[in-house]
Amino acid sequence: MTQTVEPEATPPWDAAQVKLTSKELGPGVFAVMPEDVFTKDHVATTAGFVIGERSVLVIESMLNGDLASQLIGLVRQRTKKPIRFLVNTSYHGDHAYGNYLFSDSTAVIQHPATKRYMEEHFEDDRRFMIGLMGKGKGIERVQARTADITVADMLSVDLGGRRVEIRHFGFAQTPGDLVIWAPEAKVLWVGNMIQAPAPALPWLLEGRHSETMATLTRVREFLPEDAIIIPGHGRPMRPADIEFPLNYLRELDSAVRAAIDAGWSAEATLEAVDMPRYAKYSLFEWAHKSVNVPAAYQHVQELRGRTT
Fold it and tell me: Which domains does the chain have, with CATH numbers?
């Protein structure tokens, strides 16, 4: 459970330039997004918070202390009620590194796999994130803070007159992917299991694309058609928009299986599986060619090895 993919030479976004804003999607339910979320197909991390009669639940803590401070400031613009819960959708640093800035009275919620990864691999992961995002972006000052509460399946949290559900539908990008569902407002935060709406593609950083397809299908079936999805790095979307990453993964799987059936090497498969109709994504060269095709090739080979 490690991020072994080499990072891009250019960071996907500049942590020092991110300005966050909040948008109310339902009574007491807020998405937090970078200001450029409606002009780019991949932006900095999204987040959110839900305000109840007694307390607040925050989704994600961002990459560093500066961004976590912005997030807390947006909460404080809306309410002075205590932040009782903080949920990380995964162990990825831009979703969990800001945990340390929250009060000790705030209970951090993670999947058991996320907690275990952060406890065992934090320094390695921090080095990876510095390599990805660049030095001097506040990552060097981050302090590890892991879960007070773990959720392996589902947890319902009562904030006082408002309920929030934390659910695990299965592996999507990491073994510890959690989603956060505000049922009255019909808003779902999914973290990096969906990067952004089309033309954004999944990032198969830990492979296992067949499991990703199954998990996204379960999420799609769970949601009412009028639900709002907050992806990990993009503008709000609808459940029907899940079909785009699902179709990409299905086509990727089919193409890679055909290449393996033809006896092609990993290098030949990478050359052949170009899938140009998905190339409008600004990070296509990296996500598709450097990450997804090699990951899918390895995963299919592993699956076939188990059945022979």
Answer: 15-239 (3.60.15.10)
